[in-house]
Amino acid sequence: MIDTHVHLDDEKLVNDVDNITRDFTRCGIKLVINNSCDRESMEKGFEFARKYDDVYCTVGMHPHTARFFDQAFADRMAMLASHPKVVAVGEIGLDYYYDLSDRNVQRDVFALQLEYADKLGLPVTLHVRDAYGDAADILNAQKKYLNRPVVWHCYSGSAELARQMVKKGHYFSFGGAITFKNANKQPVIDNIPSDRILSETDCPYMTPVPFRGKTNMPQYVRYVVEKLAEMYNVSFEEMQRITEKNCFDVFGKIDRSKYEQ
């Protein structure tokens, strides 16, 4: 199994990363991708990626902290992106639920980071919440820079938007929320071919059933894969194979020969 979106740098996990990564093999985890939110998390994720064989990382500024994006941050992104363990720009996008950065700033920084991702030759991982219309508009306006895969992390948008974005070649990642009783994600899943699906936990957040209410962990990605298998009406083993292949297709810097056996 692969967890394409973790936050091992979060205060709930950061002091236990040695034990978490040591447990990967026993839990059937092949690799995880630590996602950047700001300068501190980007640096910590990079540190983990260099230290642990099966941890990879991204570079980028979350919409919550978009107001802190500057040229120094962009230069650091570019510097880190040359490393083989840095596999994407993310998580970037728009968040109108919390509005922790001005919406105009969020939009400008999102558009700019799409350009940087293209310059760096990396796919992008999106964080979009309550801002799907504006996000789609920006992606359309910046389409000349979208020359590598786009991943909608923890997708909670409509089935119609998913259908539109599938036509553009985008991918969709789902986490623990799809296991919630009131999730009702089947109409969305029905509009996403299985070759565009990724598995994630977004740990330590969004813990899946049956551990909801506890701190989320990478090994809980198993429950996400199980739910996806149920929704696509395939076996667990087949969904595991599908999500792993899709991960390697999206994050091209990962040496798939190391994991495909």
Would you spell out the secondary-structure blueprint of this structure?
Blueprint: E1 2-6, H1 17-22, H2 24-27, E2 31-34, H3 39-51, E3 55-59, H4 71-81, E4 86-95, H5 103-120, E5 124-129, H6 132-141, E6 150-152, H7 159-167, E7 171-174, H8 186-189, E8 197-199, H9 221-232, H10 236-250
Parallel strand pairs: 1-2, 2-3, 3-4, 4-5, 5-6, 6-7, 7-8
Helix pairs in contact: 5-6, 9-10
Protein described:
With 261 residues, the protein is α/β, with parallel strands linked by helices. It has a single domain, classed as TIM Barrel. The chain is built from ten helices and eight strands. An eight-stranded parallel beta sheet has the order 1-2-3-4-5-6-7-8.
Which tags fit this structure?
globular, TIM Barrel
Q: How would you concisely characterize the structure shown here?
A:
The chain is of the alpha/beta class and 261 residues long.
Roughly what fraction of the amino acids lie in strands? 15-25%
CATH superfamily: Metal-dependent hydrolases
CATH secondary-structure class: Alpha Beta
| Euclidean distance between termini CA atoms | 13 Å
Rounded average pLDDT: 97
- Describe the biggest sheet? 8 strands, parallel
Structural class: alpha/beta
Overall geometry comes to globular
For the biggest β-sheet, the strand order reads 1-2-3-4-5-6-7-8
Task: Note the run of SSEs as H and E.
Answer: EHHEHEHEHEHEHEHEHH
The CATH architecture can be given as: Alpha-Beta Barrel
Tell me the CATH topology.
Answer: TIM Barrel
What is the number of beta strands? 8
- Low confidence ranges: none
Fraction in helix: 25-40%
Tally of helical segments: 10
The count of domains is 1
Our Rg estimate from Cα atoms comes to 17 Å
